[in-house]
Inverse folding.
């Protein structure tokens, strides 16, 4: 399946990652060959991707946020849990995994992927149904970080069981009163962090499968944070607890 990716950073990172099939690059007429555009052209030359200059209005039909460049590629290729474990082993690190339970908003998904890539998460796990997937909107929202991540789709309850069998502690992000504060949870070991959907949070079966539930302390008047904000905060907490390892 072919699709169009848009935006200078998403297109650049997709080409840099070298994981998709590339078909053609369309550039708006008048765009100067400098900065990211120059680097995009270099990658296209290396990968033998045809480059065509078109009136900006034609790119507008693909996305209003193209920033003068769109790239036609093959669909995103998902991976397996085994490959995620193998990556952690190759890096000689304890597994650091993000599980997203029925997240719906592409912007939230993309934001979490961008944070996950920044802190060195080994892989991201999505449920099989009722979730956003790696669409062009998600690639754009992640600024291309999705292209550098191992992402798999699976039954979350089954995956959680496998993680536990491999001595990975599963921590669910939940605002409930029964949840523990971060200072009471050891986040520095092998960890799978579960972030639920924007409105309902984690599904009951997933929540009940977690080893621990974590809530962020709230000092102000509001009672909760956006899913991507809360998830990003905890991802950085976990990275810090792991000693800011590289």
């Amino acid at each position: 399946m072919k699709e169009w990716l848009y935006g200078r950073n998403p297109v650049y990172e997709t080409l840099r990652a070298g994981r998709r099939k590339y078909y053609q690059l369309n550039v708006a007429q008048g765009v100067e060959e400098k900065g990211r555009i120059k680097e995009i052209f270099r990658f296209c030359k290396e990968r033998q991707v045809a480059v065509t200059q078109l009136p900006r209005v034609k790119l507008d039909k693909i996305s209003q946020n193209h920033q003068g460049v769109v790239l036609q590629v093959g669909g995103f290729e998902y991976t397996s849990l085994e490959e995620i474990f193998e990556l952690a082993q190759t890096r000689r690190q304890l597994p650091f995994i993000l599980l997203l339970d029925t997240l719906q908003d592409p912007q939230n998904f993309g934001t979490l992927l961008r944070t996950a890539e920044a802190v060195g998460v080994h892989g991201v796990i999505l449920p099989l149904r009722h979730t956003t997937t790696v669409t062009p909107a998600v690639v754009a929202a992640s600024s291309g970080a999705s292209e550098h991540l191992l992402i798999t789709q699976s039954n979350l309850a089954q995956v959680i069981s496998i993680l536990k069998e491999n001595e990975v502690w599963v921590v669910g992000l939940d605002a409930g009163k029964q949840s523990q504060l971060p200072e009471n949870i050891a986040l520095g070991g092998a960890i799978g962090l579960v972030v639920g959907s924007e409105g309902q949070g984690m599904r009951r079966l997933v929540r009940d499968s977690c080893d621990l539930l974590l809530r962020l302390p709230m000092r102000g008047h509001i009672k909760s944070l956006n899913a991507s904000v809360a998830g990003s905060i905890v991802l950085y907490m976990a990275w810090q607890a792991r000693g800011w390892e590289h």
About this structure: DSSP finds nine helices and ten strands in the chain. The CA atoms of residues 11 and 146 lie 11 Å apart. Residues 81-241 form a domain with the Alpha/beta knot fold (CATH 3.40.1280.10).
